[in-house]
Amino acid sequence: MVLLSPLLLCSTLLSTAAFASSKCKSTPNDLTWPSNEEWKSLNQSIRGALIKTAPAPSSCYEGNPFNSSTNCFDATKYWTYAAYHSAWPESVDYSIFTNNSCLPRGADGYTKGRGCSIGALPQYIVNATNEQQIATALRWATERNIRVVVKGTGHDLSGRSTGAYSLSIWTHNFKHIEHQPEWPLPDGSGTADVVICGSGHTWGTVYNAVHAMNRSVVGGEDATVGLGGLIQNGGHGLLSSHYGLASDQVYQVTFITADGRRLVANNKQNADIFWAVRGAGGGQFGVVTEFILKTHPVPKNLITGGFSFYQVSASKAGNISWAALAEVASSIPDIMDNGLTGTVIAMTGSSAMALTGLNHTSPGVVASVSLVGFNMTTEAMDRTVQNMTFRFANGSSANMLKVVYQSSEAYSYWAYTKPDFLSSTSCGSSSLMSSRLLGRHELSDIPMADLTTYLQQASVSQSATGSMLLFGLQGGPGPASTPEDMRGSVLPAWRSAYVHAMSYGASLNATADPSDALASGAHWYEANLEPVWRNWAPRTGSYMNEGNAFSSTWKQDFYGENYNRLLKLKRAYDPSGSFFVWSGVGSDMWEYDLHSGLLCRID
Ligand SMILES: Cc1cc2nc3c(=O)[nH]c(=O)nc-3n(C[C@H](O)[C@H](O)[C@H](O)COP(=O)(O)OP(=O)(O)OC[C@H]3O[C@@H](n4cnc5c(N)ncnc54)[C@H](O)[C@@H]3O)c2cc1C
Ligand SMILES: *[C@@H]1O[C@H](CO)[C@@H](O)[C@H](O)[C@H]1NC(C)=O
Ligand SMILES: *[C@@H]1O[C@H](CO)[C@@H](O)[C@H](O)[C@H]1NC(C)=O
Ligand SMILES: *[C@@H]1O[C@H](CO)[C@@H](O)[C@H](O)[C@H]1NC(C)=O
Ligand SMILES: *[C@@H]1O[C@H](CO)[C@@H](O)[C@H](O)[C@H]1NC(C)=O
Ligand SMILES: *[C@@H]1O[C@H](CO)[C@@H](O)[C@H](O)[C@H]1NC(C)=O
Ligand SMILES: *[C@@H]1O[C@H](CO)[C@@H](O)[C@H](O)[C@H]1NC(C)=O
Ligand SMILES: *[C@@H]1O[C@H](CO)[C@@H](O)[C@H](O)[C@H]1NC(C)=O
Ligand SMILES: *[C@@H]1O[C@H](CO)[C@@H](O)[C@H](O)[C@H]1NC(C)=O
Ligand SMILES: *[C@@H]1O[C@H](CO)[C@@H](O)[C@H](O)[C@H]1NC(C)=O
Ligand SMILES: *[C@@H]1O[C@H](CO)[C@@H](O)[C@H](O)[C@H]1NC(C)=O
Ligand SMILES: *[C@@H]1O[C@H](CO)[C@@H](O)[C@H](O)[C@H]1NC(C)=O
User: Fold this and answer.
1) What is the reported pLDDT for 281?
2) What is the model's pLDDT at position 8?
3) For residue 216, what are the contacts with CB-CB under 8 A and spacing of at least 6?
4) What per-residue confidence (pLDDT) applies to 397?
5) N or C end of the chain: smaller count of CB under 10 Å?
6) 375 CB under 6 A from ligand 7?
7) Contact 457/325 with Cβ under 8 angstroms?
8) d(CA 297, CA 243)
9) Helices (H), ranges, 96-244
10) List of long-range contacts for 352-357, beta carbons under 8 Å, 24+ apart
11) pLDDT in tens, 398-428
């Protein structure tokens, strides 16, 4: 934060605005902020696509102060639905990042009497339908020192698709999609089967389209998640352990720079920005309007299987369940090398009763292992499950554990992955989490006692109801075998990672001042969880889309050895800092204060 000394404030009253504009991004309180006439002329130059922000729940407030066009009933009913937020130009899933400025009654974070204001929502939004509008608006905002944010769906878990006093570029309507089975590769080396997609698609709309093409693509597991943020920051899903991350599938992007240039970027031209937007780039360098993505054959089938376990006797204080979890964790690299993917959920305390179905807590940890395989048989899945559980359920302690087997089932790929846009209903006030990538070294090659201790330490929680540790089996052979020229700037640790581990220990006070709530959550992680990851996995890092944007080691965590090269590109493509996101490249030269809304340079 820029602290203006009282002396400076008094003695330079007139030049405060000029001072602010040189240090801080412009705000409506500054003399430099464009007049209504100027906004009107921007609107004309982009064919009327400019929207003045009207928070959807404005209709829940006396007199509908922003004249929202939706009714309060819908805003209230659908507030937890991801699909609802993506349909509105300004709305985002996690309202803490908007400073909880305009919420329907009863929503997480709602405080009676706070009223409805723009808060940290953008001031204006470009409802873009063509690249020219984006280019014009970006150049216009950059020339006027106005902060720019980019919103696809608004699902970002670190609030990177909203920002106070900003102009938002909404890519929602970039929805063209086309199959080209023999697209000529830019380097002339042959052709590839690709799908050409507008960046406003969600994975659900892409999956529907590629299903009709009898192909598959690597994307996220939730239908409502968008291409823009998921691909540009890495992206994992059901197929990532086979074919690599979503950012490993990109042959070309179309990109609009902060000064309004349109670039076609691939391995042959504009290769530097092409590299940057493949893994480390969401909302930081410019706006991607189109992705050209590799497609794959549809898997012949999809087999599910798994098991869960809990400790039935309190003897040994739950250590038997922790040891069992360690056995599961250590077997993950092998089963992934054998073609499996899936999730492991480990919970403690009363929250774990959801996994056991019991109405009392179990000692230690309760775990549920859900596996997915492709092109295989249910018998092969059963053998893997037996083998995994034999590692901990075969000895003298076995009778202290209850293992519940899930019967293996075969699905068609489509039956299992058919998009459901209304299933994602977890939106709320906040989403702070911490995560770490774990490789064979961290999972299989350390002493079992150490692994057990790390698992216990990573399951810390601020809440009395217990903790949740989630292992996504999303790295493995796919990212490891991705050819060099398909690897962008994604954190190199992904190449040796098997597991993306997420832990959700902090409990944020939903009704506190958002800036304070985030700061105290960040402080809790820094004191309790980040040190565990750093100790367990000092050389890996974290997945930027599902990580702790407030970690003190974010440069190393999210970018690793790529950071300096990315910083050069940030300076080249966005020299005046139109784009800012928390823990973005070069973001340490800025301070974004959610309380004042000011975004100021601190170097
Ligand atoms: C319900 C849910 C399920 C999830 N499941 C998965 C999963 O299976 N796999 C996974 O990897 N992640 C998953 N995530 C995390 C997800 O990758 C991030 O939330 C990601 O930010 C979503 O991208 P988006 O474009 O939908 O969101 P947005 O909030 O719209 O954008 C996210 C970031 O990307 C930027 N951005 C978006 N579009 C563009 C563009 N065209 N040009 C430039 N910048 C752009 C934004 O500025 C912002 O910084 C999930 C998240 C949620 C909420
Ligand atoms: C932009 O122009 C369109 C069409 O004239 C209009 O509907 C819209 O309200 C204008 N936007 C703003 C912010 O004035
Ligand atoms: C509010 O929006 C409606 C259309 O949704 C429009 O007819 C009306 O003029 C607007 N009122 C104000 C005060 O802007
Ligand atoms: C954010 O909310 C707090 C109240 O919690 C308020 O004091 C502050 O002015 C708000 N800031 C912005 C930018 O809306
Ligand atoms: C955005 O633009 C499209 C195309 O012009 C239009 O159909 C849609 O209604 C607009 N959305 C909003 C929220 O203005
Ligand atoms: C779909 O593609 C596969 C090859 O990937 C092919 O074997 C199959 O016949 C195709 N199905 C249809 C309906 O075209
Ligand atoms: C499934 O098998 C086909 C060949 O029959 C192969 O091309 C494809 O990569 C396999 N898919 C997965 C996810 O293993
Ligand atoms: C359980 O494990 C912890 C270390 O992780 C150890 O200190 C404790 O003594 C063990 N308890 C029993 C009953 O074995
Ligand atoms: C829950 O516990 C109570 C006793 O505390 C018991 O009566 C009841 O049957 C239990 N319910 C289930 C589903 O186990
Ligand atoms: C069973 O596990 C052992 C190691 O624990 C491994 O060597 C073997 O390949 C596994 N077999 C199957 C069918 O997974
Ligand atoms: C249980 O399985 C593990 C791993 O396969 C093995 O090392 C151990 O000897 C087995 N114990 C018993 C009692 O069979
Ligand atoms: C949450 O913050 C509110 C507002 O500052 C405060 O009144 C309340 O006591 C806090 N709750 C907790 C559990 O700290």
Assistant:
1) 85
2) 37
3) 210, 239, 295, 296, 297, 298, 299, 413
4) 77
5) C
6) yes
7) no
8) 11
9) 131-143, 203-212, 227-232, 240-243
10) 352/310, 352/466, 355/308, 355/310, 356/308, 356/310
11) 789 999 999 999 999 999 999 999 998 888 8
Half-sphere exposure of 214 (CA within 13 A, CB side): 2
Out of 193, 213, 214, 301, give the residue to mutate to test ligand 6, the one with the largest number of ligand atoms within 8 Å of its CB.
214
The answer to whether the 34-170 and 177-294 domains have the same CATH topology is no
Q: Please give the model's pTM, rounded to 2 decimal places.
A: 0.94
User: 162: how many CB neighbours lie within 10 A of its CB?
Assistant: 23
CATH hierarchy code of domain 34-170: 3.30.43.10
CATH of domain 177-294: 3.30.465.10
Q: Could you state, in order of their start, the residue ranges of all structural domains in the chain?
A: 34-170, 177-294, 302-418+430-559
Give CA–CA dist 517/595, Å, rounded.
11
Pocket-testing residue among 99, 429, 509, ligand 12, by greatest number of atoms within 8 A of Cβ: 509
Q: Does residue 410 contact residue 381 with C-beta atoms inside 8 Å?
A: no
- Of residues 280, 292, 126, 299, the one with CA closest to residue 206: 292
Q: So what's the pLDDT on residue 22?
A: 65
The dotted CATH code for 302-418+430-559 is 3.40.462.20
Q: Among all ligands shown, which has an atom nearest to the Cα of 168?
A: 1
Q: Is 74 exposed, middle or buried (0-12, 13-18, 19+ CB in 10 A)?
A: middle
Atom of ligand 8 nearest to the CA of 318: 1
Kindly state the tokens that stand for 502.
């997420």
Q: Whose CA is nearest to atom 1 of ligand 2?
A: 48
Q: What is the DSSP letter of 296?
A: B
Q: How buried is 109 (Cβ within 10 angstroms: 0-12 exposed, 13-18 middle, 19+ buried)?
A: buried
Relative orientation angle of helices 36-45 and 131-143, to the nearest 10 degrees: 150
Q: What is the spatial distance between Cα 85 and Cα 57, in angstroms, rounded to a whole number?
A: 11
DSSP 8-class letter at 226: B
Q: Which two tokens stand for residue 262?
A: 């349109």
What pLDDT, on the 0 to 100 scale, is given for residue 20? 44
Question: Quick check: 424 and 83 in contact, CB under 8 A?
Answer: yes
Nearest atom in ligand 2 to 43's CA: 1
Sign of the dihedral defined by the CA atoms of residues 394, 399, 404, 407, in that order: positive
Q: Which residues form ligand 10's pocket by a CB distance below 6 Å? A: 383-384, 387
User: What kind and span of H or E run contains 401?
Assistant: strand 401-411
**Are 171 and 86 a contacting pair, CB within 8 Å?**
no
Closest CA to 322 of 421, 467, 153, 438: 467
Å from CA of 368 to ligand 5 middle: 44
Q: Does ligand 7 have an atom closer than 6 angstroms to the CB of 457? A: no
148 CB within 6 A, ligand 2: no
Q: Which residues pair with 345 in a beta bridge?
A: 368, 470
Judge if the beta carbon of residue 152 lies within 6 A of ligand 1. Answer: yes
Three-state secondary structure call for residue 178 = strand
